[in-house]
Every structure is written in C-alpha cells, then in structure tokens.
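Q: Two folds, back to back.
A: First:
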Amino acid sequence: LYDALFNVSASGFSLLTNFSIRNSNGSPVIKEFFLTIPQGEFKIHFIPSQDSSLAFVNAIEVFLANETRIIDYAPHVSSARNVSNYTGLLSQALHTIHRINFGGSQIDYDELWRKWVADDSYLILHSDSAKNSTPYSQTLNYNSELATKYTAPDRVYQTAKQLKTGANGNASLLNLTWSFPVSKNSRHFVRVHFCDIITKTLNDILFNLYIYSNFDQLIDPYNR
C-alpha cells in the first residue's frame, strides 16, 4: 500500500491524480470534497496510475451537504487585481484545503464530522497583538436564509480573534494577517464566517477584509 499511486474520480469529476500516502507517516489521510451530483447512482472510481499496480481506500463517508449553504456565485479576484463575478461554483468539485476556527480551540468533529483547526499557527507578524475573544455563552441567532448550524457549528461563531487594545482603547496595530499555504496556478474558493458576538448597536465595529491587496470589502458584522 505504501507504493500505491492512483487516481480517484466521482460522477465525472477528477478528484485526485497520482495520489499517494507515502509521506503520511502512518497518520490517517482524509480528503474531503463538495460535489453536485446528478440524480441516480453516485459512482466513485479508484484507478491505479501507469506506474502502480493497485489502489486502495479504508473508508468512504457521504453526507448531504445542502445545509452548508455554498452558493453558485462569488467575486472572482485575479492575480492582475481584476475583480469580476464568478458563476458556477456548484458545477465544480470543491476540495477542502483549510478549515479554520478563529479565536477558538480545535474542533475535531462537528455536525457533519468536519474538523476545524485553531488559527494561531497561521497568524503572522502581529501574533503578540492578537487575542482570543471571551467565548459567547448565549444562544446564537441564525438567519436560516444565510446560515445554519451545518454551515459552521456554534463553537465557531461563539469565539473570535480580535486586536488587542492599548491604553487609549484603540487597537495598537492596524491589522491582523493570516497566511495559508495553497497550490500555485489553481483557483481557490475562500469563504469567511462572521457572527457579531460583541456589539450592541449598529456601526459599533466596521473593518475591512483584504485578500492580498487584490480585493477588499467593508465588513459590518452587525448586519452580516
């Protein structure tokens, strides 16, 4: 099994190419994908590559993902800083790369058995000026048209990472920045989650979300 090299496809989507667990050091390797599949049978194919004689799998889990609220469109940001509208997310196979719980501890299993890791190892430059918020202990209010407990569990929305404030009550630095390793020359779908567990009135907190310098959006967490 150590030398196995194989491809995996499902319902017309190529999921893994020349896949190997050679560098896993005995740890379980879990690959997660979001797929829109046609009505009927859901077929998963494991095909040895030309340089291999076998393919294998230990377990397969299939969950109905409708409640995760992935929509079909999003802003598309190019390396040339051009911003356009992208439509067709639901016709793609989405491979989960990072799932991060900001300001909270690791969550090994949520309602859909997804793992959420803590954000601290991804925070760069200003880790000494960031802190975890006080966990929110009251019941969360979900707008069922925008999010449910399947979009992310309560424990994700009940915690947050925030800038530390100085003696004057203002943030001592202008931003918090996280960095995530990804594959070059690939498109990536980035989804950020907000739940206002701090403010009491409108416009208490406004801030900008940046992806590199290519995309920025004003966030009003009271209304989002």
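A: Second:
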Amino acid sequence: QQGACRILLPLRQVLIVRETLAQLSLSDRRFRGLVTLQSDAYWRLDAERRLIMLSRPLPTWAGPVEGRTLEELLAPRSDPAMVAELTQALDGAKPFRGLRLKGRTLAENASFALALSGEPILDREGRMSGWHGTVSDVTHSVAMQEALWVKKEAAELASSAKTRFMSQVSHELREPLNAILGFS
C-alpha cells in the first residue's frame, strides 16, 4: 500500500498543477472578458515598457500594437509636450492619474482628448516588472468644457458691453438735463 502511495504522489502533484493552471486560464479569460466590457481601454506594458496588451485601438494608430511603446503609438498624432509628460510619468515609476493627451485622429483627422492613468507592476521582490493602466476618451467632456468657457467669455463680454452702453446712455441723458437745470 505504501508503495502504491509513493508511486501516485507525483501524479497527485501533477494533477494539482494542472488544476492550478486551469484556474489561472479561467481567471485570465474572465479578466479579458471584463476588460472588453469597459468603456475605457486597458493597457499593460512589460519591463521594457513595450505593450503586451491594449484592449481597444487608439485613435492615433492602426495596425498591430504589441511590442511597441505607448509613446510610439501616441507621438505621431499627439501634442509632443503631452507625450513628453507621459514619458516623464513612466520614467518616474510612480502611479499617475488623469494625464491628458490631445491630438488628431488617424482616420478623420478630428481632434481627440485622452486621459491616461497607470501604475507600476511589482514582482515578489518589489522590483518593477511593468506597467498597467487605462486610457479614457474624454474628447466629449473636453469639448463641453471648452464650449462652456466660450459661453462664459461671451457672457462676460456682453455684460461689459452692456455696462459701457448704460454708462454712455446715462451720461448722454444727464448732460442735457444738467444744462436745463443750469438755465433754470
């Protein structure tokens, strides 16, 4: 009986490893399913900051993205100063939130605005082994903010013009009345 147990012990370990791998595969499929349901794009970089995964295409790049850096994908159609901010954030090896990037889309040459957030991935020893984060399309909200700013500026100009007009009308009406009062 003990001999049979010794023979089956390695088989038990193989079965445990197989079950663990099956659970990891299931977990990975579930995660990828959740990522595709998000409105934001999920990205993951390796230790050399090359893309391992990008759940949605970026408006600046067509074609395969794996093995490229985020900067390579964004630089051709984005504001260079904003891409430099992204590079600086990744060089800093600290989490960042809401980093804004503006540019022109590849297809329609329309403007876009993206908000990037990311954080480093650390291995068991605490060394950085990559990055992961999200890209949110904030084009609509940025356009709304700009439209509100334009409306506010127009309202302030109208108010200022109204104040000047009222001042001028008041002066024009007071001047003849003062003359009449002076003669009387």
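Q: And?
A: The helical segments are 2-37, 70-74, 80-92, 139-183.
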